[in-house]
Amino acid sequence: LTQARAGIISTVEVLKVMEAFVNEPNYTVWSDLSCNLGILSTLLSHTDFYEDIQVFVRDVFSPIGERLGWDPKPGEGHLDALLRGLVLGKLGKAGHKATLEEARRRFKDHVEGKNILSADLRSPVYVTVLKHGDSSTLDTMLKLHKQADMQEEKNRIERVLGAISQPELIQKVLTFALSEEVRPQDTVSVIGGVAGGSKQGRKAAWKFVRDNWEELYNRYQGGFLISRLIKV
Questions:
Q1: Which of 73, 109, 129, 189 could form a disulfide with 115 if both were Cys (CB 3.0 to 4.6 A apart)?
Q2: For residues 44 and 94, is the Cβ–Cβ distance under 8 A?
Q3: The model's pTM
């Protein structure tokens, strides 16, 4: 990928190498693949190839997704649980039909209190239903945020809210970021989630930061959060 970014080789060569990892069992390798595909997705979101790269993600990640399944297997290690969350989140965001359907089913059971999601499945399920959700999905997520007893759960929800796609809902998430519902130190996570969520989110987050720059700057002064905000 570094060679492709430097213009030495074609990105097509990178994708061919990625395809060769389809039977890879290692979490660290998949994490790297996921990160690099994320970079490519971001670049291609401004082109006609965005849908093609989503198809590629589904093709590469679905065999490992089917192998892992949704539920832990006996004797599994911590890295298997991390890998499951990573793979399901990637497939869900890319619109893999079976993953989306199962995520919606499990999310409904979770919200209704029938079957509470395990901690390692919450982020991938939340991000999947939001990415392909509507205003009622966002309202449900904000309600879960309000009801959460643990700060860890609040932060988990804050990080994924930016996955929502519709422009008016993106604005709602950005407004929420500066509300009293979100701790000042966590506002950056919400804005960063929007900036990384989609092409529309990136533009909206950039405009929002410029429009609210004075308030954000006064809030964080010269601290590390302002530099993190600028980076995202």
A1: 109
A2: no
A3: 0.93
